[in-house]
């Protein structure tokens, strides 16, 4: 239903456009009353780059001729151009252009269609107008599409190149009464359907395929996506002085291949990339390069006189003739015109440009001087125009050669003093200074009397030295050393060796680096020498030195070459002045350039007396100190708990420690400014000695005895004061009248085990006893108490009673006296209680006899009573 409605609307629109077109043609013709002046209108597509003729064209060319323009006096004339899709008469483009009037000339206009021209027919009409006149529309000129007579289904475009970033609309010419897939959304004719624009944003070296639907209805399409030409920097030069070669850079890749790739023409003649050749002209020439592919055209222009653009080719057949210090290079040219051409040449020697250029007509040789003897070289030659230099030509092939030997240079000589002998030393010559293979050295020793002797020595890979023996001859020695090779002897190197060298200078200590400064020595004739060697290495020929030229001011020179010294090695550095009489020692220093951790101390031992332990050790060996020893660190550890008990530092080689008995581990290490070295370990068990224990016990006992004696003497001398402080006197009671006191006497009955006690009376003179009856009352005072107590129970005799009861009856009612602990019956036989002077609580006592029960458990038959 939708398709029928769409077709109906399309038909109505076509009828309306046709009517409007007829009306415009008849009305305007009648209005103007003039004939159409535009003649010979031609429509044709742009030239195709497709292998097939119907891959899809998008550019429509319109060409016409205007009779009215021949007589038009206007400066500019205009044309209205209208493009319609013929079948539905749908306007797809309208444009007004302005051109200059041409007599008998054709006008040309291009239009790019949004869809391929093959998709449907397109019609074009034009009209002329100027400031005073508007012409009539021409008849419709039609370019027929493939939908008119197509016998099969077709898709456009296909196999066609497009610019990167293009949005391409595809069309399908379907069979009659067939509708293609849903990707073709718009119908523009009875058989043609188009898609929405499809973007292509990336280039591709191969055709980009797109699936447009059912292969039966509309097969998919393949396209080429790329760029227009981007060639740059056209330059035309002559290389053989007969022809001109033009070169340029290709620029960006176009991604178009085969028949779609870029095509080049130079001054109208076809050529390939970087291979365009023209004949030389002796005048300024213009070269125009056109690079063209289906997506665009690039034009490059270069203008120059070919004789000013000479780029020579490389020389050939290069050869050489070498000597000790120079070489002659020769070459030839393959181009005939080079032999009469003025040129200059340069040489690349061992990778660097030789400092001189050579020139001449047809130059074919050059001499290189100041070369190193007995050395290998490589050489290349390149030439260029001398009169109008443009650029250096191509380099020749690399040629290798070697120079011959020459006599060596003078050797560097020095002397070494030691306690046992004196040696002359010299440094081995490098390849640069030996000028050949050193076969040996010749040494001449001359004394002050002019006598001399010669000595030939062999080779050594490092420094060479020779011992000088003075013998019985006194005086200085003059030593000359020369190196020799196949070319001869080197210039002699001479040094004077004093028979008694002057070494009386103080040695200064240097810490972490060497910086030697000395004052100018007035008698110096050949500069100064700085000598250094490992302090603790007594090997012969270990001395190194550096010679320094004369100085200009008083503070002569500061020498600092710490980088040549090894870390942790002690060096002795000396400064000598070079004089005609031999070296003169100016100053000497010892020290380390860089200090490190020292080695281990040796011979760690211990001795102890009592609790005092002394650790002692030897210092680190000199060759292992690796720095200035600042001191020693002693660590004491408990062997059992592995805990550090004490840490001590000392500068001595021993330390005293006071320790309790136990097991200990001692660690001793040396340290420098470079750090602490490896420690030596010693374990020791400190025990208590028997003689020490006895001595300690005796000392303790004697001390305690002396202290006790001193305290006893003090207490005796101060006994009154101590008694008063600890046991003050008890005040005596004051009673009226005269008291007569009696004692208590006890005796032991051996047979029965009882104690018999007699208690005597005590009374005052002022209060005599009133009755002796044991059962009668005994008044003591007006307020005294009366009591009747059964003291003991005895079946035999009331005069016998137990000690416990006895204590009860003698208790003082007003003052309690503490009785001593009861004693046994056997002890109480000798006990006598004297109360003559003591206070008795009762004034009157009645004597009683009691029987005291013994241990056998005898129980008295009757009790006795005492009445007070």
From TrEMBL:
It is found in: Membrane. The chain crosses the membrane at residues 693-716. It is a single-pass type I membrane protein. It comes from the Eukaryota. Residues 314-406, 407-503, 597-691 form the Fibronectin type-III domain. GO terms for cellular component: plasma membrane. Residues 1-31 form the signal peptide. Keywords: Glycoprotein, Membrane, Receptor, Repeat, Signal, Transmembrane, Transmembrane helix. Pfam families: LIFR_D2 (PF17971), LIFR_D4 (PF25552). InterPro entries: FN3_dom, FN3_sf, Ig-like_fold, LIFR_D2, Type1_Cytokine_Rcpt_Type2. Gene3D superfamilies: Immunoglobulins (2.60.40.10). PANTHER family: INTERLEUKIN-27 RECEPTOR SUBUNIT ALPHA. Belongs to the type I cytokine receptor family. Type 2 subfamily. This is Fibronectin type-III domain-containing protein.
């Amino acid at each position: 239903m939708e398709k029928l409605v769409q077709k109906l609307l399309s038909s109505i629109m076509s009828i309306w456009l046709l009517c409007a077109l007829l009306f415009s043609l008849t009305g305007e013709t009648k209005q103007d009353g003039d004939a159409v002046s535009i003649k010979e209108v031609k429509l044709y597509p742009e030239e195709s780059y497709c292998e097939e003729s119907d891959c899809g064209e998008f550019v429509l060319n319109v060409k016409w001729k205007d009779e009215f323009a021949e007589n038009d006096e206007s400066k500019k004339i205009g044309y209205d151009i209208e493009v319609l899709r013929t079948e539905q008469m749908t306007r797809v483009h309208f444009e007004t252009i302005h051109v200059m009037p041409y007599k008998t000339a054709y006008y040309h206009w291009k239009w790019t269609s949004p869809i391929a021209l093959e998709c449907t027919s397109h019609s074009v009409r034009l009209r002329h107008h100027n400031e005073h006149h508007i012409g009539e529309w021409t008849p419709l000129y039609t370019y027929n599409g493939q939908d008119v007579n197509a016998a099969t289904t077709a898709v456009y475009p296909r196999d066609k190149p497009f610019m990167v970033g293009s949005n391409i609309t595809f069309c399908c010419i379907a069979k009659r009464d067939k509708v293609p897939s849903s990707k073709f959304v718009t119908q523009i004719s009875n058989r043609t359907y188009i898609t929405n624009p499809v973007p292509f944003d990336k280039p591709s070296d191969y055709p980009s395929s797109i699936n447009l639907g059912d292969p039966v209805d509309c097969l998919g399409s393949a396209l080429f996506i790329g760029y227009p030409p981007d060639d740059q920097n056209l330059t035309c030069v002559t290389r053989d002085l007969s022809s001109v070669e033009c070169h340029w850079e290709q620029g960006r890749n176009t991604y178009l291949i085969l028949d779609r790739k870029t095509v080049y023409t130079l001054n109208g003649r076809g050529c390939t990339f970087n291979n365009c050749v023209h004949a030389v002209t002796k005048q300024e020439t213009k070269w125009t390069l056109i690079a063209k592919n289906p997506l665009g055209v690039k034009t490059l222009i270069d203008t120059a006189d070919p004789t000013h653009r000479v780029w020579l080719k490389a020389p050939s057949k290069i050869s050489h003739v070498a000597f000790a210090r120079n070489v002659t290079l020769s070459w030839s040219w393959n181009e005939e015109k080079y032999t009469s051409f003025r040129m200059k040449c340069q040489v690349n020697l061992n990778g660097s440009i030789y400092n001189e250029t050579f020139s001449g007509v047809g130059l074919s040789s050059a001499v290189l001087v100041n070369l190193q003897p007995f050395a290998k070289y490589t050489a290349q030659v390149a030439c260029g125009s001398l009169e109008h230099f443009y650029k250096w030509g191509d380099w020749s092939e690399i040629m290798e050669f070697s120079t011959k030997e020459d006599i060596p240079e003078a050797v560097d000589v020095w002397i070494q003093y030691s306690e046992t002998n004196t040696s002359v030393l010299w440094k081995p010559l490098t390849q640069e200074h030996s000028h050949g293979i050193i076969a040996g050295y010749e040494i001449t020793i001359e004394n002050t009397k002019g006598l001399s002797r010669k000595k030939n020595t062999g080779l050594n890979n490092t420094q060479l030295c020779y011992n000088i023996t003075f013998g019985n001859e006194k005086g200085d020695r003059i030593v000359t050393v020369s190196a020799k090779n196949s070319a001869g002897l080197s210039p002699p190197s001479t040094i004077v060796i004093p028979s008694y060298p002057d070494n009386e200078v103080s040695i200064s200590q240097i810490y972490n680096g060497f910086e030697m400064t000395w004052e100018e020595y007035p008698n110096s004739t050949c500069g100064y020498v700085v000598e250094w060697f490992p302090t603790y290495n007594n090997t012969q020929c270990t001395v190194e030195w550096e010679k320094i030229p004369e100085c200009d001011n008083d503070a002569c020179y500061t020498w600092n070459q710490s980088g040549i010294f090894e870390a942790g090695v002690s060096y002795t550095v000396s400064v000598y002045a070079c004089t005609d009489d031999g070296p003169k020692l100016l100053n000497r220093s010892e020290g380390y350039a860089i200090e490190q951790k020292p080695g281990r101390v040796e011979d760690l031992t211990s001795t102890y007396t009592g609790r005092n332990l002394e650790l002692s050790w030897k210092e680190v060996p000199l060759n292992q100190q690796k720095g200035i020893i600042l001191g020693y660190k002693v660590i004491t550890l408990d062997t059992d708990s592995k805990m550090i008990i004490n840490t001590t530092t000392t500068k001595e080689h021993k330390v005293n420690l006071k320790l309790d008995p136990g097991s200990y581990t001692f660690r001793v290490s040396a340290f420098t400014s470079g750090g602490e070295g490896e420690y030596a370990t010693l374990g020791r068990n400190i025990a208590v000695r028997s003689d020490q224990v006895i001595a300690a016990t005796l000392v303790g006992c004697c001390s305690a005895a002396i202290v006790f004696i001193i305290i006893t003497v003090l207490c005796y001398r101060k006994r009154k004061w101590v008694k008063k402080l600890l046991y003050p006197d008890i005040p005596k009671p004051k009673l009226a009248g005269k008291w007569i006191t009696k004692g208590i006497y006890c005796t032991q009955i051996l047979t029965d085990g009882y104690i018999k006690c007699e208690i005597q009376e005590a009374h005052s003179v002022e209060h005599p006893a009133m009755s002796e009856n044991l059962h009668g009352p005994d008044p003591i005072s007006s307020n005294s108490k009366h009591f009747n107590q059964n003291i003991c129970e005895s079946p035999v005799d009331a005069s016998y009673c137990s000690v416990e009861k006895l204590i009860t009856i003698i208790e003082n009612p007003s003052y309690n006296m503490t009785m001593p602990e009861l004693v046994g019956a056997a002890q109480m036989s000798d006990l006598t209680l004297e109360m003559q002077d003591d206070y008795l609580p009762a004034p009157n006592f009645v004597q009683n006899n009691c029987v005291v029960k013994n241990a056998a458990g005898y129980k008295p038959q009757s009790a006795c009573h005492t009445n007070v």
